[in-house]
Amino acid sequence: MGDGWTMRKMWVGAGVAVALGMGFVMLLVVGVYLVAGDLAGGAGGGAKKLAKGSVPAAYQPIVQKWGNLCPAINPALLAAQLYQESGFNPRARSAAAAQGIAQFIPGTWATHGIDGDGDGDRDVWDPADAIPSAASYDCSLASYVKDVPGDPTENMLASYNAGAYAVIKYQGVPPYTETRNYVKVITTLEKSFAAPTGRVDPSEQAAGAIAYAQKKLGTLYLWGGNGTPEQGGRFDCSGLTKAAYESVGIKLPRVANDQYNAGAHPARDELLPGDLVFFSDDLTNSRAIRHVGIYVGGGYMIDAPRTGAVIRFDPIDTPDYFGATRVTEDGAKALPTTV
Predict the structure, then answer these.
(1) What is the DSSP secondary-structure string of 194-248?
(2) Widest distance between CA atoms in the chain
(3) pTM of the predicted model as reported, rounded to 2 decimal places
(4) Residue 318 C-beta-side C-alpha neighbours within 13 Å
(5) Dihedral of the CA atoms 198, 205, 245, 339 (nearest 10)?
(6) Does the structure show a pLDDT above 80 at 122?
């Protein structure tokens, strides 16, 4: 049967061990924290580039280019703002009349909208204009508060939320709860759009999330399943990962492609147990992700694969493997509630 069959038998054996006790979980806990000692320090500095597929392919070159317009912004930060504002939806419209992928209100667009693609018009609904305008607006705000002490990027973001006058008045991020939350949300989301420049710190809650998922092995899949009593305790893929992390105090979004933005993205050879692993038919666009599982080591995950199947161990090294996310509490909290 070959090595694949041998490996599968090993993992089936591990599943039996789980049913008998917590030995497998304890091995994972030890593994996570032994590796943690080697990963201390997290990502290093340097210019930030976009994580693979984190921005839809149609917009990635624009975000990468215009995200370097001034020192106060970078491509990952610009991507975080666009995701927070519209979920990269160029037709988004809010109740407050904000429009397009960057959610400009008409008055702000009239003043700060630019012809980003040089075609002779300024169209708030055209990402080729709206994304450059968002970057230009950020840089204008940064210039207004350039003499204010503190972090230039945080001061710029505070100006975006509360106005430059408030930042100048308070000589930094003003003491408004909404503004401080906005600064924290965008700078946290930035990490989920940036390609790591070093190793990613391990998740402290990983072992608990895995333990939850292992208890569900053998449970029949249910499309839209959240594990409620009315659903017979059954899950679909993102319902399982959401419940697993909720069991350790981290609330993830319901949909797999939004769960991808709940933390930084370790490389394939840096995966640790507890990382969420994602799969897509379009490897250039995180918004097209259609499946998620919880990595358990050895090239395998626990997942709820499809109708008619049960929650089980599956290999992750398939042609549709998209990437991984190391979930953090701050990363999950930063995700917008509507995208």
Answers:
(1) BPPSSPPPPPTTHHHHHHHHHHTTTPBB-TT-B--GGGTT-B-HHHHHHHHHHTT
(2) 72
(3) 0.75
(4) 15
(5) -30
(6) yes
Say which residues have a Cβ less than 8 Å from residue 92's Cβ, sequence separation at least 6. 85, 86, 98, 99, 100, 101, 103
CA distances from 132 to 67, 120, 141, 164, 279 (A): 8, 14, 14, 20, 30
251-263 exposure pattern, b = at least 16 Cβ within 10 A, e = fewer? ebbebbbbbbbbb
Opening angle at CA 157, ends 156 and 162, nearest 5: 100
Opening angle at CA 129, ends 126 and 134, nearest 5 = 115
Residue pair 205/249 in contact (Cβ under 8 Å)? The answer is yes
pLDDT, one tens digit per residue, over 284-299 is 999 999 999 999 999 9
Q: Which residues pair with 310 in a beta bridge?
A: 220
Burial of 334 (0-12, 13-18, 19+ CB in 10 A): buried
Beta bridge partners of 220: 310
| Residues 6 or more apart whose Cβ sits within 8 Å of residue 299 | 7, 315, 316, 317
* pLDDT at residue 232 tops 90: yes
- Residues 26-49: pLDDT tens digits? 444 444 444 443 333 333 333 578
